[in-house]
Specification:
The chain is of the alpha+beta class and about 110 residues long. Helix content is about 30%, strand content about 35%. The protein has a single domain (about 10-100), classed as 2-Layer Sandwich (Alpha-Beta Plaits). A hairpin with a 4-residue loop joins β2 (about 40-50) and β3 (about 55-60). α1 (about 25-35) packs antiparallel against α3. The protein starts with 8 loop residues before the first strand and ends in a 9-residue tail after the last strand. The model has no long low-confidence stretch (mean pLDDT about 95).
């Protein structure tokens, strides 16, 4: 778990379902995680995928400008096109502002 994060911040919630044709997807996903971590304003990411191909990735950003810059990153644009044309059956993107947060962890 990545908390505590600097707040307020923003979360980009990407929910998707993979098609049966997802060769190359894992390598691209790994590259996108590596590349996102290099972007100004990036705060972290959490991601899960179920056996049926449904996934949720939440990336955290300092501000909306950082999110816009990430969306326009040339390698990310390429990944987006491959996703639309090959890997995703469907997806949605939501952006939320996080005002505060807390966590619990067993000692």
């Amino acid at each position: 778990m990545n908390l505590p994060r600097k707040t307020p911040c923003y979360a980009v919630i990407f929910t998707s379902t993979l098609t049966d044709q997802h060769q190359g997807y894992d390598a691209m996903a790994d590259r996108m995680l590596e590349l996102a971590a290099q972007q100004p304003g990036y705060l972290g990411v959490e991601s899960v995928r179920s056996p049926d191909g449904t996934g949720i990735t939440i990336s955290y950003w300092e501000n909306l400008n950082a999110i816009k810059a990430w969306k326009q990153n040339p390698e990310h644009l390429t990944a987006q096109e491959l996703g639309k044309n090959q890997w995703y059956q469907n997806y949605s993107v939501e952006i939320a502002r996080i005002e505060s947060g807390y966590q619990f962890e067993q000692p």
